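Final report, section 2: Outcomes. Of the targets proposed, Secreted protein is the one most frequently requested by collaborating groups, and we therefore present its record in full.
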Amino acid sequence: MLWPMIAVVLGFLGIAVLGVLALRVFIEVRRLAGQVGAASERIQRAARDLERAATPLAARAGRSAAGEAGSGDSRG
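The predicted structure is given below as tokens.
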């Protein structure tokens, strides 16, 4: 009768340890998800800033390329 009781206690302790570890993993996953969300927002903000900064440069480059293309056709 002693061995079955020890087996039950050890089984219960094993399940309790797995439960505690699962809880710790769950907490860390939530923390990681929050960090990933914050990083994603920062990346989106940086992408918007980059696009906002690049738009005038692209327009200027497009105008200069159009001007060069028009002058390049007159050469023979």
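The radius of gyration is 32 Å.
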